[in-house]
Amino acid sequence: MPSDGTLGIGELAAQAGTTVKTVRFYSDQNLLPERARSSGGHRRYAPEALARLRTIRSLRSLGVPVPEITRVLDSGEALEAVVARRLDDLGTELAALRWREAALRALQEGAPEQMAERLELIGAVSVPPSTSVIAHYWRRLLPVRLSARLRSTITEAAVPQPPADPTTDQVLAFAHLHALATAATDHCLASHRPITVEHPDLLYDGLYEAHQLVDAAVQADRTPGPGEALDCYVAAHARASGTRDTPTFRRALTVRLAAAEHPVMIRYWQLAGQLTPDLTLGAADSWLRNALAAGTAAG
Predict the structure, then answer these.
(1) Cβ–Cβ contacts within 10 Å for residue 28, how many?
(2) What span, in angstroms and rounded, lies between the C-alpha atoms of 279 and 258?
(3) Measured between alpha carbons, how far is 155 from 281 in angstroms, rounded to an integer?
(4) 15 with 50: CB under 8 angstroms?
(5) Do residues 187 and 282 lie in contact, with contact meaning Cβ atoms separated by under 8 Å?
(6) What is this structure's pTM?
(7) What is the reported pLDDT for 167?
(8) Residue ranges of the chain with per-residue pLDDT less than 50
(9) Torsion sign across C-alpha atoms 227, 232, 233, 238
(10) H or E element: which one contains 44?
(11) Edge-to-edge strands, sheet with 43-45
């Protein structure tokens, strides 16, 4: 080592347990500044460059990108913030890998004659999967005059999130759901749009509350029947229709809801139910309609 204490590139590489090529690369990326050049034009590094090089290599071994390492070393960014971002990135990467594995197994497990169809279906979904197409479907489906607050609340509740560690059946269910939402034209939406009323907030506020009450009833293992959830459900429909909850209204509502059932929505909630262990809005609404039908039949 020269009297000025500097290290040559080979010495620095040897002490850090790496190669001259690696040291040169980090120098060229401005991660490892030179102290000076020798009379022969060779790079010389300060003694503290060894600790800096070890830090760089440790961060790179964890997949931290060069620009982020620069911010930690030269701009004073907290290492904790970089680690947190890297963990978020890894979570996204792992989710993508788990999805790809399940998607490949879905192709592998299908009959040979299904492979082309399944490939097209699954291949239309981004990796990791995004719910944006399904959310857009709901924003188009809900009544135009519905408030932004309720539109957001209902859309969030209606759109199932892709499982973090999906089964092959769940990959297929999500892909079918994505295809259903993608294929929905304005004409198609009009045919299975929920019941239209003059004051949609009156209806949807009450329906959302009723669906929350059903969740508690299902947790308690109650079969569809009379109670607070059904009363809230019928009251929401009655308010939106400008009338009162009466036996006559309940009978008419039973008929109206049965006539409004649409195979697309039935299919939607069947698929959504495969993606979450929680009660879907569709399952809650079905419980309430069954409770209503049972009550009117008994009456």
Answers:
(1) 9
(2) 21
(3) 10
(4) yes
(5) no
(6) 0.79
(7) 97
(8) none
(9) positive
(10) strand 43-45
(11) 7-8, 43-45, 36-37
